[in-house]
Specification:
With 187 residues, the protein is mainly α. 70% of the residues lie in helices and 0% in strands.
Length: 187
Amino acid sequence: MNIEKPKKGEQAIIINSLKLFRQQSFHNTSMEDIAKSCGILKGSLYHYFKSKEDLMFRVISFVHLYFKEEVFIHAYNDKISAKQKLKKLCDASELVFFDKKTGKLYGNIGVESALVVPEFNPIIREFFQDFFNAVKHIYKEKYGEKIANELAERSVAEVEGSIMLARIFNDKTYITNTHKRIIARLE
């Protein structure tokens, strides 16, 4: 899949929508809510997006592209050690999870949305495949293919679980502790 960067007007709508979907969920956010948060008329949204589902698809794509360019990229930096790669990947992801603008944790809205709209599953699956591949690439520097595969699978599941717990208990230490544990696997 080719994930492209949104144009300037689209990007502002996507970012506002991301915040609303995170706060209210995909199902509970209307196009009217999105238009109000963007300071535009509801009809103007349809200039950029065919439907709320189309907009959510673009939101998920935007998040995926961000993670590819700003988070997963650290896994492939050949100039640093595996442990440094994983630390940088974890630190970069925490910048997203602990978004400074809203002061709240960013959750995995794509997974929540997949339960409501199964058509989102392919792009969400691609995101997790890229996440898995990045972590596996790092672990392969120390372990063989089979163990690296198992550790990557476990690590991604642990991170996703820690995001859920952090949101439920409003406590980011679930994520930071998980990151410490997955990094320690490289010692």
